Amino acid sequence: MNRPDAVAQEHQEHKVEISGWDSNEDFFVENSSLGWEAGEENIIRLRHRVRPGSMIFLRVVEPSSKPMHFPVAFRVGRVSARMEAGAYEAILRRLWPRPQESSGSTTQVPAPNSL
To answer: What pTM does this model have?
Structure first.
């Protein structure tokens, strides 16, 4: 059986700043609320239409005990048609850094003047 406080923590709303490139390839920044639920996918409403598969960044903007909030990368999944309120609903999936290759190998980046 779920405890009431555990159920309340499963769905949380956070005020966020969203940035990225819209479907017209114009950079945008807007504010919204993110419904944070247990699981890997989250739904957000946007005024800008974004393409499925594109990457956007979310940064929590509400006050908390942490002094700074850094942007977090998300991949856009399905995007709904424009809703009556003039917003698009997008499904987001958090992106994670790729695991490092074996510790013995290093990636060499050529010097700028050697290109």
So the answer is: 0.69
Give the residue among 16, 17, 19 at the shortest CA–CA distance from 76. 19
Q: What is the CATH number of the domain that holds 66?
A: 2.40.10.220
Show Cβ contacts of residue 3 under 8 Å, excluding neighbours closer than 6 positions. Answer: none
pLDDT tens for each residue of 24-80: 999 999 999 887 766 667 889 999 999 999 999 999 887 765 666 789 999 999 998
Pick from 21, 17, 24, 10: which is nearest to 60 by CA? 17
- Number of domains forming the structure of the chain: 1
**Residue span of the structural domain in which 79 resides:** 7-96
